[in-house]
Amino acid sequence: MIYTxxxxxxxxxxxxxxxxxxxxxxxxxxxxxxxxxxxxNVSVILSRLGVKNKALGFLAGFSGKQLDSMLKSDNIDTDxxxxxxxxxxxxxxxxxxxxxxxxxxxxxxxxxxxxxxxxKLEQIxxxxxxxxxxxxxxTLPNDIYEKILKRLDGRGxxxxxxxTGDLLLNVxxxxxxxxxxxxxxxxxxxxxxxxxxxDIAYYGKKLQAMGAKNVLVSRxxxxxxxxxxxxxxxxxxxxxxxxxxxxxxxDSMVAGFLAGWEQKKDYAYALRLGSACGNATAFSETLxxxxxxxxxxxxxxx
Length: 302
Description:
The protein is an alpha/beta fold. The chain is built from ten helices and 13 strands. The strands form two sheets. The protein has a nine-stranded mixed β-sheet, with helices on both faces. Strands 3-2-6-7 form a four-stranded mixed β-sheet. The longest helix is centred in the last third of the chain and has 16 residues, at 249-264.
């Protein structure tokens, strides 16, 4: 079982507006409503790959109930903490000649709410996985990742962390199974520019020396690289084609990697499946479905 945590989920309300005009009422051509959040994205792809998982985090108000309902309708197992006040954020995305994104800040989260989440995390057993992904809302303490891993340390849980800066660095002492910086984030940690495979190997080993077991580095148009716990560097390219959207690609890669490892305990296969998931999402309007992932895997990453 793999558990994911999304601290600040969202509903993305996308409005397609021709000829956006600030001097008159604008009317849409169409609207779409999507759920969002990095941990949720990981849970969605895991579920589509047939990997048992559960999405945790915080929800609030009518928008939180709607998000939870949408996830359950997509067969995503959830166990969120419901907050007594506020609303799960609704982000507005206006698509016109010029796109406008307005992201809400989300509800306040109290210390009591945090403890409720901690109690839910107690269900995680030895051999299970826990994914912590993304930034945290301002109402949470800056060391929330560290507090969670400290509480669960020594229980044989495979931690996967997709975060930046101190959020990532401060948890390395708990020896996460997987971390996934992109090449820019890896360079920012060490104040360098990552240009080559040798750079990834050199600085990835520094992160391993600090505690990380496997370092998966997404590289945009150049594919991805994995420095596994044995010290072997594996690289992989991208499938050809025009990208539709980059949203959720990194989350899809994390999910695919974890699913691949769960299935075969083979890092080469995990990297291929992770890349197939990330690429399939890049060529899709939303998160890739199972058929898109299987086609990508068989056609380009077999």
